[in-house]
Write the structure tokens for this entry.
Amino acid sequence: MSRSPGAHLGWDEFFERAWVERGRIGAPARISRLDRGWSTVLRSNDGTELDVARVRNIGADVAVGDWVLTDDDRVTDVLQRKSAFTRRASFDGMRAESQTIAANIDVVFLVHSAGTPPNQRRLERELVLGFDSGARPVVVLTKSDVVDDIRPLHDTLAEVALGVPVLVASGRTGDGVEAIADFAGGSGTLAFLGASGVGKSTLINSLLGEHTQETSTVRSGDQRGRHTTVAVELLSLPGGGWLIDTPGVRAVSLWLSGDGIERAFADVFELMDHCRFRNCKHDREPGCAVLSAIADGRLDPQRLVSMERLVAEEAALEADQRARERLDDRVGRRRSSGS
């Protein structure tokens, strides 16, 4: 029987219980990279040394960061995830497909650049995904070395990052990098998500102490960059812990939400609780606490518009999924009756 992996690989009581429920069958391993039907996995049975192997993952729903059980050269099972960063990835007719970018992460850093105007609307979407992932979201404002005064940019992002830390860092100078690494706590897993050209790869190189990730220049006209990172990868941090780098994400599309919208827009939902009518539409109703806050400047009207847009997007996605499920049920019944 295989021994439990070492805690330094991110193994903890949560995964131990999941393994025990499966009878401690199979060898636990953590996925560090995916390549067309194959997974690169890390194993640690003595608590110190890491063994790197490649196993087949055909038919298994896996993501980088997952804990899997292996037998010889294949994945036999995927342990329950503690967290997962999932977004809407593609469309197949009516069907919306989900994409899990990273799994079993402790802190997800939402990376924005001081070299571009702050985008509150994008950050709001990222915060919804971050909260829904089960990880702790933290905002990082990179490239602090390209501006004389970082405070206005920091404050603009902080306005919508309610209760979420907003860190300032520079991968080039190293400022703020140690504070980011501290979030790993020796064995935790950090994930970095952001648009192309925001400085993720430069920041990650600084964290790793080496030029592991390629970097690219951004266009001078709009400060947008190419997708420097081409594959999601689990990387070891020098001071302990793990880091998951992801390709730049241009479009931030929601997947089915838990309480992410409520947490990202806690200020709006708090006001809604004080409206005179329970079914208040926050349009022209008397006694609307939301409209009152907008009128006296306590709430930016764009916050309400943004929240309503995300709620509508989620409702449309749920309707699409229900329609697809009904269609699949009808197709299944026809096949059963014809067999």
